[in-house]
C-alpha cells in the first residue's frame, strides 16, 4: 500500500523550504525597511518605527500592487490626518463628544470601505486607521495634534517611498506581465463553463469558476493601471476580454434555454455536442471549419423555426469564441482592441455597509467605555489599537476570524519583542546590530506573509513587533511600560473580536430580499442604459451577486437553497434583454416604436413587484406586438430579425418561469 506523502505545515514550509519568489520578497522587505529606518534616524523623525512598519503594511508581491496600495495609503493618511486635526480642534476639550465623533468617523470609514473595492476601499480603511493613531493619542496633549499629524505623514510617506522604489528596482514582478496568463486562464475557464452550459452538466461549478476568475482578473487589472502605459493598455484589453467572456456565457446559456423549448432535439443535439467538445479543447484549429459547416446547416429545410433559432444561437457562441481569441491575443501583445467598455460594476449593499459601520462604532465605544470606567492609564492605547483593528477588518465579510488571526500575530510578537528589546538591544551598539536584531524575526515573518493562511498573522506580527520595540535615537527600557502597552493592545483587540463574534451580520431573508430588489432595479435600468456599457455593468453586478449567493447558500438547509436558482433566472432575463437590444439596435419606424414600447412595459413590470404569479402574463401582449412588428418586410436584416424573435420568446419564457416560482417581492431571493 502506498503511504501518503508527508507534508510540512504551512509555517515550516514557509520558513524551511521557501520558494525563490518568497525569498526575494522577504529580502526586498528587509532592504526597503532598513533604508526607511536609516533615513528616519538621519532625519530625526519623531517615531521612526512608523517608517519601518509602513514598508511591511504596503509590501506586496508585485510592484503594481505596492504602487496602488502606497498611493491610496498616502491619500487615506492625509485625509485621516486632516480629520484628526478637525476632531481635536472641535472636541479636544470634550472627551465624551470626541469619542462619539471618533466612533461615527470609524462607522463612516467602515461603510465606505465595504461599499467600494480594491484601492478605493483601502483608502477608506487608512482614513480610519490614521485617525486612530493620531487623534486618540493626541487627546493627552491637544495642542500638539498638528505636529503629530505632520510627523505621522512624514514617517508613513517615507516608508511608502522606500517600499515603492524597492519594489520597482529590486527583482521587480510586474502585474501586467502576469495578466496575459491570468487572462488566458479566465478565458479557458469561461470556455469550459460555456461547454457545461451547452451540455447541461455541472453548470453551477463551471459558472462559478468562470465568474470567480473574472473577478480575480478584474482586481489585478486595477493594479496594472499603476505600472505605466503598457500596464494600462493590458488593463483596457482585459476589460474587452471580460466583456467577451460574459458574452460567451450569455450565448451558451441562451442555447441551453432554447433547447428546453424544443419538442425534439434530434437534429440539434449532435451540433451542440460537437461545439461543446470543441470548447473543451485547449486548441481550436477546427473552429473555422465547424463554423462553416454550422452556417451551411442553417439552410436545412427540415429544421423547425425553433431549431433554426437554436442553431443561430449556437453560431453566436462560435462568434464570441472567435472574438474572444482575438481579444486574448491583444491582451498578450499589450494592445488595446477596439470598443473597450467601461470598468465592471459590482453589487453594493448600502444597508449591510451601514450596519457594519454601526457595529464598528459599537465596538469602539465598548473599548472606550472600558477605558473611561476603569481609568486605566494605558487604556488609551487599547482604544487606539481597537480603532486600528476596526478600520482594518470591520468591512470584511468575516471580521471576527480576520481580527482573531491578527490577535494571534500580536500575541506572538510580544514575547519576541520583549526578548529583542530587553535582552539584546541594551548590549548592541550601532545601526547594523539594530538591523540584525530586528531583521531576523522580520525576515521569517516576511516569508510567511506570502502564504494566504499565514498572511494576516504574519503581517500583525511584523507591525506590532516593530511597534513594541519602538526603535528610535533615544531608546528607553522600561519593562512596566512595555507590559502595560502589550496588555492594552491585547485588551483593545480582544474586545473588538468579542463584539465581532457577538454581532454577526450573517445573511438572512431580509438580506436576500435586498439582493432581489437590487437585481430588479438593475434589470429595469438595463432597458435604457447605453448598450456599449451595459454588458460590463450588468454582468459584473450579477457575477458578484451569484458568487455571494453561492457562498451564502452553502450554509443554508437544502430546502432554502432556491436563492441561487432565482439569481440565475435574473441573469437569464438580463442576458436575453441584452441580446434583444443588440439585435434591434438598428431598427427604425414602426419596429423602433414597438421596441421602445416593449422595453418600457418590461421596465414597468420589473418595477411593479417583479416576477410573481399575478404578473406572469404582463409580457404576453407587448411580446405579441413586437413579434408582429418583426414580421414586417424590410424591417430588419434577416439574421438580426431571427435573433430578436428568439430573444423575445426567451424573455417571455424566462419571465413566466420566474413568475411561477412564487411571489419574490415579499420573500426575496
Summarize the structure.
With 669 residues, this protein is an all-alpha fold.
Span from first to last CA?
A: 49 Å
The description of the largest β-sheet is:
none
Describe the global form. elongated
Strand content: under 5%
Could you name the ranges where pLDDT drops below 50 across 5 or more consecutive residues? 1-6, 663-669
The number of helical elements comes to 26
Q: Give the mean pLDDT.
A: 81
Q: Which percent bin holds the helix content?
A: over 70%
What's the total number of strands? 0
As a whole number of angstroms, the C-alpha radius of gyration is 29 Å
Q: Return the string of H and E elements.
A: HHHHHHHHHHHHHHHHHHHHHHHHHH
Give an account of the 3D structure.
The chain has 669 residues and is mainly alpha-helical. The protein is built from 26 helices and no strands. Helix 6 runs antiparallel to helix 15 (379-393). The model is unreliable at 1-6 and 663-669 (pLDDT under 50).
Could you outline the blueprint of secondary structure elements for this entry?
Blueprint: H1 10-16, H2 20-42, H3 49-58, H4 63-91, H5 95-115, H6 118-138, H7 145-169, H8 175-199, H9 203-224, H10 229-260, H11 269-279, H12 287-297, H13 305-333, H14 350-374, H15 379-393, H16 399-424, H17 431-449, H18 455-469, H19 479-502, H20 509-526, H21 531-553, H22 562-583, H23 589-607, H24 620-630, H25 638-660, H26 664-667
Amino acid at each position: 500500500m502506498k503511504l501518503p506523502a508527508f507534508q510540512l505545515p504551512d509555517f515550516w514550509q514557509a520558513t524551511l523550504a521557501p520558494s525563490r519568489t518568497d525569498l526575494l520578497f522577504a529580502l526586498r522587505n528587509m532592504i526597503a525597511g532598513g533604508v526607511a529606518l536609516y533615513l528616519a534616524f538621519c532625519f530625526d523623525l519623531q517615531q521612526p518605527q512608523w517608517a519601518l512598519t509602513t514598508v511591511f503594511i504596503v509590501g506586496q508581491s508585485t510592484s503594481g500592487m505596492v504602487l496602488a496600495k502606497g498611493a491610496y495609503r498616502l491619500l487615506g493618511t492625509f485625509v485621516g490626518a486632516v480629520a484628526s486635526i478637525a476632531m481635536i480642534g472641535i472636541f479636544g476639550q470634550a472627551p465624551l463628544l470626541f469619542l462619539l465623533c471618533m466612533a461615527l468617523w470609524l462607522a463612516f470609514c467602515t461603510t465606505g470601505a465595504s461599499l467600494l473595492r480594491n484601492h478605493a476601499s483601502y483608502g477608506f480603511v487608512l482614513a480610519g486607521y490614521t485617525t486612530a493613531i493620531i487623534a486618540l493619542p493626541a487627546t493627552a496633549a491637544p495642542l500638539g495634534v498638528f505636529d503629530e499629524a505632520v510627523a505621522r505623514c512624514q514617517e508613513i510617506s517615507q516608508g511608502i517611498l522606500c517600499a515603492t522604489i524597492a519594489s520597482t528596482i529590486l527583482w521587480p514582478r510586474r502585474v501586467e506581465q502576469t495578466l496575459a496568463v491570468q487572462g488566458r486562464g479566465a478565458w479557458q475557464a469561461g470556455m469550459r463553463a460555456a461547454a457545461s452550459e451547452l451540455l447541461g452538466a455541472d453548470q453551477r461549478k463551471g459558472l462559478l469558476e468562470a465568474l470567480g476568475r473574472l473577478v480575480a482578473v478584474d482586481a489585478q487589472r486595477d493594479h496594472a493601471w499603476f505600472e505605466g502605459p503598457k500596464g494600462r493598455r493590458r488593463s483596457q484589453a482585459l476589460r474587452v476580454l471580460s466583456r467577451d467572456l460574459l458574452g460567451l456565457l450569455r450565448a451558451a446559456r441562451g442555447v441551453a434555454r432554447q433547447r428546453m423549448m424544443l419538442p425534439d432535439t434530434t437534429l440539434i443535439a449532435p451540433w451542440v455536442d460537437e461545439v461543446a467538445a470543441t470548447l473543451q479543447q485547449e486548441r481550436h484549429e477546427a473552429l473555422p471549419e465547424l463554423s462553416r459547416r454550422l452556417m451551411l446547416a442553417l439552410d436545412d429545410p427540415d429544421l423547425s423555426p425553433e431549431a433554426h433559432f437554436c442553431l443561430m444561437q449556437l453560431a453566436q457562441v462560435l462568434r464570441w469564441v472567435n472574438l474572444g481569441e482575438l481579444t486574448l491575443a491583444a491582451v498578450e501583445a499589450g494592445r488595446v482592441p477596439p470598443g473597450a467598455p467601461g470598468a465592471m460594476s459590482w453589487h453594493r449593499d448600502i444597508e449591510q455597509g451601514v450596519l457594519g459601520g454601526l457595529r464598528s462604532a459599537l465596538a469602539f465605544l465598548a473599548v472606550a467605555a472600558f477605558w473611561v470606567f476603569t481609568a486605566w492609564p494605558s487604556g488609551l492605547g487599547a482604544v487606539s489599537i481597537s480603532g486600528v483593528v476596526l478600520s482594518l477588518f470591520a468591512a470584511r465579510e468575516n471580521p471576527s476570524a480576520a481580527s482573531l488571526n491578527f490577535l494571534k500575530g500580536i500575541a506572538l510578537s510580544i514575547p519576541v519583542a520583549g526578548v529583542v528589546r530587553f535582552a539584546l538591544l541594551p548590549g548592541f551598539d550601532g545601526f547594523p546590530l539594530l538591523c540584525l536584531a530586528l531583521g531576523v524575526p522580520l525576515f521569517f515573518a516576511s516569508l510567511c506573509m506570502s502564504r494566504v493562511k499565514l498572511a494576516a498573522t504574519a503581517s500583525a506580527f511584523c507591525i506590532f513587533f516593530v511597534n513594541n520595540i519602538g526603535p528610535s535615537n533615544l531608546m528607553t527600557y522600561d519593562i512596566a511600560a512595555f507590559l502595560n502597552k502589550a496588555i492594552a493592545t491585547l485588551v483593545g483587540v480582544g474586545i473588538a473580536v468579542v463584539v465581532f463574534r457577538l454581532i454577526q451580520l450573517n445573511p438572512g431573508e431580509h438580506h436576500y430580499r435586498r439582493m432581489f430588489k437590487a437585481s430588479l432595479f438593475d434589470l429595469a435600468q438595463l432597458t435604457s442604459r447605453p448598450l456599449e456599457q451595459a454588458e460590463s455593468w450588468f454582468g459584473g453586478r450579477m457575477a458578484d451577486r451569484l458568487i455571494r449567493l453561492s457562498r451564502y447558500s452553502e450554509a443554508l438547509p437544502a430546502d432554502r437553497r432556491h436563492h441561487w436558482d432565482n439569481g440565475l433566472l435574473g441573469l437569464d432575463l438580463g442576458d436575453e434583454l441584452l441580446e434583444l437590444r443588440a439585435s434591434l439596435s438598428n431598427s427604425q419606424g414602426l419596429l423602433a416604436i414597438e421596441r421602445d414600447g416593449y422595453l418600457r412595459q418590461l421596465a414597468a413590470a420589473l418595477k411593479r413587484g417583479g416576477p410573481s404569479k399575478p404578473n406572469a402574463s404582463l409580457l404576453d401582449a407587448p411580446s405579441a406586438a413586437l413579434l408582429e412588428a418583426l414580421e414586417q418586410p424590410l424591417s430588419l436584416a434577416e439574421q438580426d430579425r431571427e435573433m430578436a424573435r428568439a430573444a423575445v420568446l426567451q424573455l417571455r419564457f424566462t419571465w413566466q418561469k420566474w413568475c411561477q416560482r412564487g411571489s419574490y417581492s415579499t420573500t426575496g431571493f
